[in-house]
Amino acid sequence: MGEDKAFVDFGGQTLLDRALAATGMACDSITIVGDTAKFAKYESAKLNSTKRDSIKHDSSNGRPMIADIFPGCGPLGGIHTALVHSAAELNLILAVDMPLVSGELLRFLWARSENDDAIVTVPRVGKGLQPLCALYRREFSGFAEKALRAGKYKIEAVFAAVSVRVIEESELRAAGFSEKCFFNVNTPQDRRAGEDGPPQVGP
């Protein structure tokens, strides 16, 4: 992308701002997981004002972020870190590069996971499972840590060891959500394509 993806502009907002706004509509507390030095310039004032007071802050530095426990291990390492530091039983994980995910979609996923005791609740669309827009119970952290220590970093490989509730594409469509909601930005071309139109959202 030529710059840090979190701070790339998409439709007049950074990808990080869009992710924070969407999660703020579905969650009572928000934590950014990643390189704390990278986010040092990110001011608390930029966080969704309606949720600012409830944002979880790392007591060591006062910022709403935590560093990876297993750095350099990809998204599975980020999920593990988030769950280890969370006091909540159920946790929403959202990648920063999915700018078309809406608060309505996240509330829909949350409602489905609350009514199920599966360790992971994950949507599936045409390209497969979407583990970076999914709900995880804290128990998943132990399975993730075992995989990370073994040098195995694929999220879906860990799913084989836990109970998983898959929300199929047909269920998503019935609720008014399309595959485009899970659009992922990896290149400047992706960014331009994603800005062509908003996703379909539920009521």
Highest-level CATH class: Alpha Beta
* Proportion in β-strands: 5-15%
Mean pLDDT: 84
Reported for the largest beta sheet, the result is: 5 strands, mixed
CATH superfamily: Spore Coat Polysaccharide Biosynthesis Protein SpsA, Chain A
- CATH architectural name: Alpha-Beta Complex
- The separation of the N and C termini measures 34 Å
Would you tell me which CATH topology applies? Spore Coat Polysaccharide Biosynthesis Protein SpsA, Chain A
- What are the low-pLDDT stretches, counting only 5+ consecutive residues below 50? 44-63, 198-203
Count of DSSP-assigned helices: 7
Helix content: 25-40%
Oligomer: single chain
What does this structure look like?
The chain is α/β, with parallel strands linked by helices and 203 residues long. It has one domain (5-192): Spore Coat Polysaccharide Biosynthesis Protein SpsA, Chain A, CATH 3.90.550.10. 31% of the residues lie in helices and 15% in strands. The chain has 7 helices and 9 strands. It has helices spanning 15-24, 74-85, 103-114, 140-149, 155-159, 169-174, 188-194; strands spanning 9-10, 13-14, 32-33, 65-66, 90-94, 120-125, 128-129, 133-137, 164-167. Strands 5, 6, 7, 8 and 9 form a 5-stranded mixed sheet that branches. Strands 1-2 form a two-stranded antiparallel sheet. Strands 3-4 form a two-stranded parallel sheet. Strand 1 and strand 2 (13-14) form a beta hairpin. Helix 2 crosses helix 4 (140-149). Residues 44-63 and 198-203 have low confidence and may be disordered.
Provide a concise account of the structure shown.
This protein has one domain (5-192): Alpha-Beta Complex (Spore Coat Polysaccharide Biosynthesis Protein SpsA, Chain A). The chain has seven helices and nine strands.
